[in-house]
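ok so I'm stuck.
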Amino acid sequence: MIPKHITLKQLLKFAFIVFVLAIYFQLFFIHIYKGENLNKVLELTDYRAFFRAATMVHAGKISDLYTLDAQKKFQTELTSQDTEDGILSFRNPPLVAYVYSFLPINSYPKSFIYASICCNFLIFLSIIILFTQVRVSYVQLAIILMYLPVCWATLSGQTSAFILLSLVLIYVALKKQWYLLAGLLTFFLSLKPQYIIFIPAFLIITKKGFGKLLLGVIITQATSVTLNIILYGKTFITDYFLFVINTEGASTGTRPGSNINLFSLQPFADKLFGGQVSFIVLLAVSLLLNVIFLLLLNQAKNSKPLPILFSSIIIMGLVLNVHTLFSDLSFLLIPLFLVLDKRKLGLDFLILYFAPFLVLNEVNLQPAAFLLLMGCGFSILSGNRKSWKSLLQTSTYRSIDS
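replied:
not stuck anymore, here's the structure
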């Protein structure tokens, strides 16, 4: 249902303009980097791992998906890229590889363009839905549309766009008290299993609809595991998790220190504790901070409105999980919209908007981005910041069950 402050004509006009501009800039990017230059640019994106996995599905080699040698073999055949120094490994569930296999695999650039257009559509559909949920000016909207992680998410070929849309729809479902639907929508979080971390928080802020939400979660997560077992085989669970653990390193395309989360502190922890021990220490700290956050969330659920609760969940879920890519910061679109609702730009908005810029340099500033975002998440949940007072005073939605 479209809010009264937005007419259908305005919404359709806005949707058309945004989507056309998105496609235009995407094709402009492709046009600039034609031929060999395009191939060089494409080698820098994460999409080559997804394209490789999709090719393995077409070749009937999905059962070799979590064999590093097999991934290297396909990478060499597809791009003639030397894999001796390492490879960007595919570390998502088999279902993701199967979905990507529906895109053209006869041409890497063409497949990339199709994937990018799909990402554009999903991201801007998310923006349109968020636009209907809050009151923001067109100037504020223009600022949000230039959000750097969103721009990168449209080009990375990652599954971030799917998860962003699912989180937006979960917010709407919780707001409408459609708890079973909210639970069913958590299916898409399993595309990147680290984001299942959101589910306990969603359950905590739900009271009357807890059973329906939990039922939806159980159905979808069981369905996800079943589909992956059907596609891959009975050993999916053990093979997948062993592969993820064994490929957590620079030679396989994952650098814990480059994450925009708690694990960005690993280079410093390595100096104190050593490699393997430092990861265990940071994992323990992450679990502790998650428990503290969930306890605070449980305490705040009866006194804080849904926009505050949901915003803090998104922020803390990003900074306290084990693997957060730059494109995943596009999830911050949700708190950006909710922070802006009916208000001017405040400190919370500025932190959420500019923190990602800290990682775009050769200096290791990911820890600074992590600390700023975590502080912002706890601050928003506390409700003490001046920028949130108007929302607390004007919102008639005191909890998702009231």
